[in-house]
Amino acid sequence: MFGMGFTEILIILVVAILFLGPDKLPTAMVDIAKFFRNMKKTIGTLKDSLEEEMNVSEIKQEALAYKKELLSASEELNRVTDMTKVGEEMSKLGDEILTEVEKPSTPKAAPIQEKITFEKKPKPITKEENSNV
């Protein structure tokens, strides 16, 4: 225990009896036992918390991996749905449609132009009216 042999422990006990005396030695032994018990409990708690921390570090690494994956997916989504690029594509498509509409596919007859006036037109004379005159 603690790198000490039986003889070293015995020497420490003899020195303790000389310094403390036989009346205080039992209470000192109880206090030393409580000290070692508390140390053992503290070391166990420390060990458990370290294991928990190690598990937390694994969880952190896993969370960072998920974060990287989500960021890459988000960048890909932003690249695909980039509205400036969509706007450029839409304007190119609109230009293509306009050029197709402007190109006449078949020659059309020239439109008949009528003169529009607000004057009263004379009525054509029918045969019945012509015979009455």
How are the elements arranged and paired?
Layout (H helix, E strand, L loop, with lengths): L5 H75 L2 H20 L24 H6 L1
Q: What do you see in this structure?
A:
It contains three helices and no strands. By secondary structure, the chain is mostly helical. The protein has a domain of 93 residues. The chain is rod-shaped, with a radius of gyration of 53 Å.
Low-confidence stretches: none
Query: Helices and strands: which structural class?
Result: mainly alpha
Percentage of residues assigned to helices: over 70%
Count all strands and give the number.
Answer: 0
Kindly report the average pLDDT value: 79
Radius of gyration (CA) equals 53 Å
Strand content: under 5%
Q: Helix count?
A: 3
What is the rounded distance between the termini? 150 Å
H-E order: HHH
Largest sheet: none
Q: Which term fits the overall shape?
A: rod-shaped
List key phrases describing it.
133 residues; single chain; mainly alpha; 3 helices; 76% helix
Question: What's this entry about, in short?
Answer:
The chain contains 3 helices and no strands. It has 133 residues and is mainly α.
